[in-house]
Amino acid sequence: IRPWRTILHFSPVNRIPPRSLGRLRRDQSQVRRVIVEAMASWSALDADANAARYTTGNRAVFFDFTPMQYIGWETYRDEIKKVQESIKHFQIILNDDLTVQVTGNVAWAHGTWKMDFRFKDGSTRHLEGRLTEVLEKSGGKWKIVHEHASIPSPA
Fold this sequence. Notes:
Elements: H1 3-10, H2 18-43, E1 61-63, E2 70-71, H3 73-84, E3 87-94, E4 99-103, E5 106-119, E6 124-138, E7 141-150
Parallel strand pairs: 1-7
Antiparallel strand pairs: 1-2, 3-5, 4-5, 5-6, 6-7
């Protein structure tokens, strides 16, 4: 056996068959698209548009700024809609560091973001924070089952 063949054989990259590597990259791309589209819908103040991107029922858990958690997509959507009533303009910008990992039918992603608010009373607010998403592929579609958004504590 030639040494270079042994090294190539045991290289982690070469453990993934080419067909599986293509599927992995497709899944990563699809997961990234779901997250980017979800952030675009939030930015458009259109909570209902995100129904197709989140798992329905009580399987979904959301950790947002306040309260501590929401159980179920419908609860989360309804509470976000109440918050959106006071907002005139809102934008979430995902930074370049969004990282996506996929294993089988489960994916997780993490990254950082910037948020800009303009409220109906004329006030504004800028936040920077972090995001973690967990998605599950079911029926050929990736859906968010867990979302955690947070901002660092002031120094």
